[in-house]
Amino acid sequence: MEPIAIVGIDCRFPGAPDTGAYWDLLMRGADGVGEVPRQRWDAKEFYSQAGEEGHTNTTEGGFIADPDAFDNEFFTISPREAAAMDPQQRLLLQSAWRAVEDAGIPPRSLAGTPTGVFVGIMGNEWAQLHLTDYANVTAQVGSGNGYCMTANRISYHLDLKGPSLAVDTACSSSLVAAHLAVNALLSEECDHALVGGVNVALTPALSIFYTQAGLSAPDGRCKPFSAEADGIGRGEGVGVVVLRRLRDAIADGQRVYAVIRGIAVNQDGRSNGLTAPNRWAQQDVLAAAYRRAGVEPSDVAFTEAHGTGTSLGDMMEIKALGHHHAGRAGKPMALGSVKGNLGHTEGAAGIAGLIKVALSLHHRVVPASRFAAKESKRLNLRDHGLRLLKAPLRLPAGPAVAGLSSFGMGGTNAHAVLESAPPEAARPRPEDDAPVGGIGAAVFTLTAPNTDALRRNLLAQADAAAARRVPLGPLARSSNRVKAGHRHRFAAAVGDTGELVARLREAAADPGLLARLAGSPDGRPRVAFLFTGQGSQYPRMTAALYEQSPLYRHFLDEADAALLPHTGRSVRDLVLAGDEAVHSTRWTQPALFAAGYALGRTLEELGVHPGMLLGHSVGEFAAAVLARALPLEGAARLVAARGALMQELPAGGGMLAVRAAREDLEERIAPEPLVGVAAVNGPTSTVLSGDLEALERIGAEIEAQGLSTRRLQVSHAFHSPLMRPMLARFAAIATEVGGGVPEIPVYSTVRGRVLDGEAMDAPYWVEHIDATVLFGDAAAALLDEGPTHLVEIGPQPVLSGMVRRLGHPAPGTGPAHVLPVRGPESAGRDLAEALAELYRGGVEPDWDAAYTPAERVAHPLPPYAFSTEHRYWARNPVRGPGTVDVPAAEPAAAALAPHREAESATASVLTLDLPAGPADPVAEAVLGAVRLVGGYTDADVVLHDRLYEDLGFDSVMIMELKNRLEARLAGIGTLTVQDLLPRLSSVGDLITFLRELGAAVPVPAGFGDAEENRTLMEEERTA
User: What domain of life does the native source organism fall in (predicted)?
Assistant: First the structure.
């Protein structure tokens, strides 16, 4: 059989709320058994020491804490639906999400994939309690119950397209589910498989059955293979594992806990009783699993037994194992059973054992078996080649093989053979040919549906990072990959794990800081790159970034190699050496081009793809390369020639910045043939260029009129008539290079607008030399297109301030200004901060490029921390003989609607104009109907809420809403679902639509008065 890898695990068992706690419980040899919680049933009322009919002989068992807690908001499930759902569905939903995260997979990335869901489940007591309460059966109660829904709901909420089914073979259910999942993977029905098992004990029914059948332990504890074994103790819990074909897991660099080598299922057939075990069938299923795994019994180091602690069950299991292992008397196989720690978790028993074996192989130690100290002599374990684990077993180096048995009460048996992960999967290594990457700092990211959830998960991640030393790169990369997909995005650039822990805790404690480090993007981001021009250079510009960022280094080296044939000297080396020659035009222009190209390409490699480009003067060359209007080699040749030819021009030119409009200066410079307008950077920001003597005269006249001027420190009069002597020589080179139409819109500072099908060819680049730089016009045209982010590409910020001074759009409403390089001290940290800001704004980076190949390995992160604020439990308590009702832990769902974010409460007037004074009766009627159908309280629904995305409505709820609206509102006639569907984007839109139909509140119903309306809604809700 092709090996199948276990790549993700999540579980929740008695005394163990998560996987780490489960392993700790096993290693301590502890148990999670205690008294039956009053939330389930009053155990004392059902207790009889003699085990009388209708009673149980124990008041104890293994119960998980808070099974009523469910984060329905996370899954966009309304309170009404959550209250109707079997808690087993709720537990599986949350555990499945966490298991997928543990596999290093962002759960939302599985949407639409052929991922299978296979659930083992034995009990459906919630349905017994609710589907027999006929007066209260609703559509939600129907979909909230049933074995199939435990699997189907996971597939629905994660949008999984593979097989989805629930299995009931009693105690072996979840291992049989694993068998089906393995076969589905081998037949390529699916590429990922989620295997789960769940059990929640809501009634004493099975406890009574075990007692009446003589199977129940009086102390509620299973004691596998012990001299003290006296029956079953009930347990409960949930577990989910993620399975993949081993070759796929290795190819994707996933952590592999263990490998399933072989698995088999069979049936007892006609034994000495329907519920009696069959030794011969058990030994046959062992043989089939060994054969399928290609192992000999002597290869198996330990077996996790079914081990119920019943005299007959334990005896039959030992004899079946002994058939294969009796020859190992000198080196007996280790044996244990997790039921001694948890009780018999029934439908979840197989998954509990599977997770224990996988963790044992992963940690290379097998926990001691509880109650093994008093081994049953009657079982003659040594004669059968077996020994109970009385102390943890350290597994030797090399492959380790383990067995796992799970036998159903009705005779369906399963056995699996597992092996430790192979060396190539135990510690994933980076690929030798992995592309270059790394920006010199890490960006830790986290997403959540709302700010409360974000804050809760920040603290969970901080606690985990503080608990042990972890490598920052793999940790941050895993956060980028796994903790994605929700609306609220947190991102912070950090230098080490100590700083990360501090930033996470500070953000969780400080709403202001959290607001700065988090974003909730609306719509797709539109990114523009602005490339700075001459004047922004300085010695050692971007040197620190070059030293820290392998990715930037790669692209600067690439630009330098393209320039070298035309410059005769390495521009990169000149810049890094701090040579003042960088201010010489022949070096300035190639150096700025190299830095602009390298920074722009670095951002592109990081997944920041511009939709608009603008370059100020010489900055346009790098923009043209990114727009694919020029090849790198061609642009390098042009820039090198441009700088060299300009350097050869005679001195005597200068440039003068004037705080005045172009129109106010043109008449003044008209008589000066050697002076021109070099740049128009804004409505009152103009640069003149030309002969120095002429500029001095003009400057004096302007200052006399009270206008401010400033001489620019330049070597030549760029963009002036003094450039004309070089044009012919440059044109010859430009003609050879050519140029094409940009593939990304370029807002040309030659044209002052976007280039519309125009080539950036030789004539364009020749004109570019002495034409006025129309930055203000080009930037205004770009802003009119509504970019969300302006990323300034250059060695220091210059253009961002110029754009802000344009005053377009109004302050506070424009795009975010992002600065990957902020000046001489900038290094990887600033680039990482820029990437974090872009991510918060909705950009989806290619995170792998942010890390070196050595950092691109999976690192485990704590799973999502779900809210426990919302509680849903059975409406009808279980009654004992002669008792009064046992109160449920919490009231029904109507009083349990989830908390919504505080900002929602203030947003109810955003989408609808309500009249002043008394409440709008139509709005009150609609809001009341929506709240009633969803089970929300008054404060929980506001007008901007979306019915599907925010309130969890589905087609059944829409139909009920339609009926209630027809009953509440006059003047709308008979609605159809087709009428409603286009108008359900928000509650406010629905109200507006109904008003357009002429909706009115029927006077006899009393809806004209808001208080009466609320009273009626409350009566309807209670009913």
Answer: Bacteria
